[in-house]
Structures are given as structure tokens and as C-alpha cells.
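ARCHIVE CARD
Drawer: 12
Card no.: 0347
Subject: one protein chain, sequence and derived structure
Cross-reference: see card 0346
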Amino acid sequence: MTVAVILLATTLVIVVALLAAAGAGKLARLDGATYPTALTRAATAFAAVITLATAVTAALGAFLT
């Protein structure tokens, strides 16, 4: 049961990160950025979401333990 919850949560975080990255890349292209710049902004957004999820998980882990 616990493994399934962890896998589902991980999948949800990755899907949200991918959606945020796609949105950031699309907005960058609509703003007139080149493809490499848009890809860089998308990668930055993806990394930011993953980092935020890691920080929240660490904080909740410390709080609940």
C-alpha cells in the first residue's frame, strides 16, 4: 500500500512538473524567445517544481517525525 502511494505521488509530481515546463516553454515562445531559450526556461521551470516538491517533502518529513 505504501509503495503504491509513493509511486502515485511521484508520478503526480512529475506530471505537474512536465505541465509547468510545457507551459513555460510555450509562453517563452509566444514571447518571441528562440527555441534554445524556450527550452532553457522550460528546463528551469521543471527543475524548480521538482526542487519545490523535494523541499516540501523534507519539511513535512521533519514535521511529522
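Annotation on reverse: The first helix runs from residue 2 to 30. The radius of gyration is 15 Å.
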